[in-house]
Specification:
- By secondary structure, the chain is mainly alpha-helical.
- It has one domain.
- The longest helix has 20 residues.
- It starts with a helix and ends with a helix.
- It is built from four helices and no strands.
Length: 79
């Protein structure tokens, strides 16, 4: 992975787009950041770069709602 201008020109907007869409403005379109990164990286590298970021975004989004959900309804959604 070469960290040149092209990498940062695509990676920074992709991560910002993922963050904004995970925040509710883009209706869950954060998955589009990985194909954007795959334009300049190997697909495995793009997934490896975005997966930890997306997981961190999920954890931080879950924190305000911790123990404020209906247990049976959450269980039905998980199953």
């Amino acid at each position: 992975m070469e960290l040149d201008f092209t990498f940062f020109a695509i990676a920074i907007p992709a991560v910002i787009f993922a963050g904004v869409s995970k925040g509710g403005f883009g209706s869950g379109a954060a998955f589009a950041a990985t194909p954007l990164l795959a334009l300049i990286l190997e697909p495995g590298q793009a997934i490896g770069l975005m997966l930890p970021l997306l997981m961190l975004m999920d954890v931080t989004a879950l924190k305000p709602y911790w123990k404020k959900w209906d247990g049976p309804a959450a269980g039905a959604l998980i199953l």
